Amino acid sequence: MQDEDFSEFADLSPFELKDKLIAVARTESQKVMLNAGRGNPNFLATQPRRAFLRLGEFAVLEAERSYSYLNSGFGGLPEKDGMIERFEAYAGRFPDDPGITFLRAAISFVRDQLELEREDFILEMVQAFLGCVYPVPPRMLEHAEEIVSAYIAQEMFGKAPKSGPYKLFATEGGTAAMTYIFQTLKNNGLIAPGDKVALGTPIFSPYLEIPPLPEYAMDVVDIRMDEDNDWQFPQEEIAKLEDPAIKVFCLVNPSNPPSYKLSDACLKQLSDLINTKRRDLIVVTDDVYGTFADDFVSLFATCPYNTLCVYSFSKYFGATGWRLGVIALHEDNVLDQALADLPKPVKAGLDQRYSSLTTDVAGLRFIDRLVADSRAVALNHTAGLSTPQQLQMTLLALNGLMDLDGTYKAAAKHLIRHRYRTLCQEMGIEPRIGPNGVNYYTLIDLQQLGEELYGKPFAKWFASGDRGTDFLFRLARETGVVLLPGKGFEVVDSSARVSLANLTEAEYADIGAFTRRVLDELYQEFKSGKK
After folding, report:
1. Architecture of domain 7-39+406-528
2. Contact indicator for 435, 294 with CB cutoff of 8 Å
3. Proportion of the chain above pLDDT 70, given as a percent
4. Distance between CA atoms of residues 138 and 71, nearest Å
5. How many helices (H) and strands (E) does the chain have?
6. Which is more confident, 144 or 228?
7. What is the pLDDT of residues 15-29, one digit of tens each?
8. Degrees to nearest 5, angle at CA 288 with 285 and 291
């Protein structure tokens, strides 16, 4: 194994390299493969799924009322009149069913807390489950937006005051949100080849890989976190954003893969700069892991004018297969101002692009252009996330809103943090969980770990041989453990990302022991003087 050269794989996307590591682990390891490379959680919220199924049965019964005189299996659009009473009669048949209990609580909650009409709410949910009408509005269903907006405010604003109204666009997961944002920025002349995009690194690898693509050809500026200071931004790195040539700043908060949220001090420094010196800066904050943090506050709350917020329901609720995400944008925002400030020739081209949608293209907001561009403009009338997906998203959001005693959130946090402690224990190091640590992932800094275990000469030897990729292949082949390279997330040191969400605690103990074993073997090579 030590004579093989894996350098050809060093520049692959970490998610492509993962497939090669899995192939090695499956074919050559004598142990069961343990894939801690991808962040798909092995936990999920059950109550909103039970509610989805119970609501589905009721919705089908409602559809069957319309044409009950025809052959079985032929239904129609549900009727609003009397629906709430019919639902109560249906629910009475299952008084102790968890799904029914959840739905009854949801109907009560939206009326009492959000001032939504019960009949309108349940009609939207029934139609959404049946998928019997187009998504209207295509950006997001009316009541779904109200509910998810309340959930986003709860999770993203923390103790910060809510800073003005904002709109949501429901998307096919956070990845679709990223795609749509870059496309619409380009289509509207807000970014162009040669422009600078700043990335808060380390960062989720697609943010590194999208800007250099030929259709964008943007220059990347690293705004680097300091590993020795809980992965916060030093003041000199934040100061880089003063460069007016930087058009967009992308940030994952809490970070991926270090899994640390911005500290209060760092958040204030960053916000102060944006709110004073860079009122023209477009900020994209990806806050999917914010729900696992303590007392989380997003840049969406502290820099409302500048910030597009991307949130996905995939991790916290275990819903990666549902593909549920949103883009949030305040009504008063830098993007609409930037559209208004475009040169006349560019505006003329955009008038032509969006002329089939409105006679007032200048008044078409950026968030509505996102919707149109997601369907190549011409298909804007059939845009929008499928209504069953929007229904499940709404129920998940209600699960978060109605978790009044924090039981679900506490369980999710405890699970991943206890796994982290187990992993560290088996590697022979002390766990580091500070006030800003989240622990959805952890980053094993192999050089730092090597130095901690065996001293600086070994760490220098490890780094000089660029053994990070070798370590990953050796770990996969000898133990069946699959990790992702930190290099693919723009981590400077040789490192490996471990997802703490997708395996059992016993398996994380195995990963810790296996990692230590391979490092022990490398140390023996170092002592023997082998090249």
Report:
1. Alpha-Beta Complex (3.90)
2. yes
3. 92
4. 33
5. 20, 12
6. 144
7. 566 667 677 666 654
8. 115
Distances (CA, A) of 246 to 221, 249, 283: 8, 7, 11
Class of domain 142-330+367-398: alpha beta
Distances (CA, A) of 379 to 186, 324, 384: 19, 21, 10
Please give the structure tokens belonging to residue 112.
């009492």
- Tracing tokens 């959001």 back to the chain, one arrives at 397
Which of 245, 240, 181, 251 shows the shortest CA–CA distance to 218? 245
Residue-wise pLDDT tens digits, 432-478: 888 999 999 998 888 888 888 999 999 888 888 767 777 888 878 87
CB contact at 8 A, 154 and 316: no
Q: In 3D, which of 106, 114, 112, 99 has the Cα closest to residue 154?
A: 114
Domain assignments of the chain as residue spans, ordered by start:
7-39+406-528, 47-130, 142-330+367-398
Per-residue model confidence as pLDDT tens digits over 120-131: 999 999 999 999
Query: Which CATH number is associated with domain 47-130?
Result: 1.10.20.110
The pair of three-digit structure tokens given for residue 314, joined into one six-digit string: 């995939």
